């Protein structure tokens, strides 16, 4: 791996500042040189103009003065010439000084000792842009030089492998010195004191040393026995997760008995009961005869609890009626033949649930649960948007589909990770196989529990399923209009 030079960005900023300062100094020095040269040139032009216009100035011949002045204003640096008589009255103004300001050179015109007038000549300023345009080879060359210096620094200042290895060793040593736990240091000192005490005791009384050694050996055997029991349990969890409950308990009991300790057997029995519960819930080969659809409100600020009963109860009744009508209309679909509802939904503050069962082995009860959950989310979206439009209370919803064994974990998942308008699916392989041809799902990113790892999130469906859901949604809404429900 190739590493960049240290602080290469800072070095680039330094070079940029150097380039800007160098360009600024160039502009300032060039402007000063041009100002001095223009000042000398302006004085010479004024003196020459007075010599040429002395006779015309004495006679106040405006035409002659204008012709003479126009010849000087043809110069690129001259912007204006102003000729006045001895009474300070303007005889000839030539040029466009109001448009282009600059340095003005004034000189009095004399004829012997008599003052016959004055001449004022204005020279235009040289802009900074013109100076840079004049010096463009130097500016571009300086920029390329600074860029070359930056590239050379980036190549030569890269750390070598020896420097990287040395730095890595220094960091590791610093980490060990600063972040080693205090209790570990105390434990090391305690070990040293115990070692010194045991040596002295061994020299004083060999029998006491023998007893201490025997006790230490017993403790090590006990710790090793416990360690082996837990290793057996962990190994069992990894290899026997799909076995029946009875065989799980028997195998764990056998593993505990082989260690020969009563306390270990008691610990293993406690672990076995937990393993039995989790194994039955997470078994991927479990059949799906019924599913539970849970619909909860996405109420981040507990607004439903603060709502008056006169508003909360009608809203919950509306949601209940919508869900029951959605169940009725959905189960009329030929695709879901053989699926029936085991209960009538009723919304409470914590939501509602519907249990669907399969009347025969060909019924797609898992697909029916996913379709029902998605259908109600579509209906609730319309209800929510309409209520918000009318400035009335409404809440978004989220739903979850699981079998009976995993209904409680699904409730926790909806509370912990469920998001607005989201559909969570927690089904065994048989249920996932039913929906695989119709629904797309994706897994939860960075799961923290076993159930989060097994849970899937509804990500879309094929066109035929979406069209079926849209037709059922429209049928439910038409029933609502006929029943004159105020949405």
What would you note in describing this structure?
With 487 residues, this protein is of the alpha+beta class. It folds into three domains: 8-130, Beta-Lactamase; 199-282, no CATH class; 290-482, Alpha-Beta Plaits (2-Layer Sandwich). The protein has helices at residues 8-59, 62-73, 128-134, 136-156, 161-179, 182-204, 206-239, 245-259, 262-282, 303-306, 309-330, 365-389, 407-416, 429-435, 450-454, 463-482; strands at 78-85, 90-95, 102-111, 114-124, 290-297, 339-341, 352-358, 397-403, 423-426, 439-443, 456-461. The strands form two sheets. A seven-stranded mixed sheet has the order 6-7-5-8-9-11-10, with helices on both faces. It has a four-stranded antiparallel sheet with strand order 2-1-4-3, covered by helices on one side. A hairpin with a 2-residue loop joins strand 3 and strand 4 (114-124). The longest helix has 52 residues, at 8-59. The radius of gyration is 47 Å and the shape is elongated. Residues 181-188, 199-230 and 240-279 have low confidence and may be disordered.
Observed structural traits:
Alpha-Beta Plaits, Beta-Lactamase, 7-stranded mixed β-sheet, 4-stranded antiparallel β-sheet, 3 domains, 16 helices, about 475 residues, elongated, alpha+beta
């Amino acid at each position: 791996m190739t590493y960049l030079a240290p602080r290469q960005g800072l070095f680039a900023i330094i070079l940029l500042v150097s380039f800007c300062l160098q360009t600024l100094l160039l502009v300032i020095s060039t402007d000063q040189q041009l100002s001095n040269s223009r000042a000398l040139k302006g004085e010479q032009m004024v003196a020459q103009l007075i010599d040429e216009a002395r006779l015309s100035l004495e006679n106040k011949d405006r035409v002659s003065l204008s012709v003479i002045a126009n010849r000087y204003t043809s110069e690129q640096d001259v912007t204006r010439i102003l000729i006045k008589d001895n009474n300070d009255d303007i005889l000839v103004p030539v040029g466009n000084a109001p448009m282009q300001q600059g340095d003005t050179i004034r000189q009095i015109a004399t004829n012997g000792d008599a003052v016959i007038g004055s001449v004022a000549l204005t020279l235009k300023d040289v802009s900074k842009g013109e100076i840079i345009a004049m010096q463009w080879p130097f500016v571009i060359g300086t920029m390329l030089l600074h860029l070359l210096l930056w590239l050379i620094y980036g190549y030569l200042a890269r750390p070598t492998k020896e420097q990287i290895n040395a730095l890595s060793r220094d960091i590791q040593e610093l980490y060990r010195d600063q972040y080693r736990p205090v209790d570990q240091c105390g434990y090391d000192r305690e070990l040293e004191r115990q070692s010194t005490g045991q040596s002295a005791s061994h020299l004083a009384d060999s029998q006491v040393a023998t007893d201490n050694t025997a006790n230490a050996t017993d403790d090590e055997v006990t710790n090793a026995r416990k360690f082996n029991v837990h290793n057996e349990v962990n190994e069992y969890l990894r290899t026997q997760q799909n076995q029946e409950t009875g065989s799980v308990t028997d195998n764990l009991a056998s593993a505990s008995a082989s260690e020969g300790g009563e306390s270990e057997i008691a610990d293993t029995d406690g672990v076995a009961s937990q393993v039995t519960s989790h194994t039955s819930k997470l078994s991927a080969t479990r059949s799906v005869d019924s599913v539970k659809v849970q619909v909860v409100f996405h109420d981040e600020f507990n607004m439903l609890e603060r709502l008056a009963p006169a508003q909360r109860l009608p809203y919950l009744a509306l949601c209940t009626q919508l869900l029951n009508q959605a169940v009725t209309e959905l189960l009329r679909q030929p695709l879901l033949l053989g699926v029936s509802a085991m209960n009538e939904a009723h919304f409470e503050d914590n939501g509602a649930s519907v249990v669907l069962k399969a009347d025969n082995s060909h019924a797609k009860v898992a697909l029916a649960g996913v379709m029902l959950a998605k259908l109600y989310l579509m209906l609730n979206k319309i209800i929510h948007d309409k209520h918000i439009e009318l400035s009335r209370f409404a809440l978004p919803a989220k739903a979850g589909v699981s079998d009976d064994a995993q209904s409680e974990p699904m409730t926790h998942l909806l509370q912990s990770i469920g998001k607005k308008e989201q559909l969570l699916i927690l089904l065994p392989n048989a249920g996932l196989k039913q929906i695989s041809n119709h629904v797309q799902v994706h897994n939860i990113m960075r799961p923290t529990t076993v159930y989060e790892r097994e849970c899937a999130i509804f990500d879309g469906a094929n066109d035929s399923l979406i069209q079926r859901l849209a037709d059922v949604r429209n049928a439910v809404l038409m029933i609502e209009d006929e029943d004159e429900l105020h949405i």
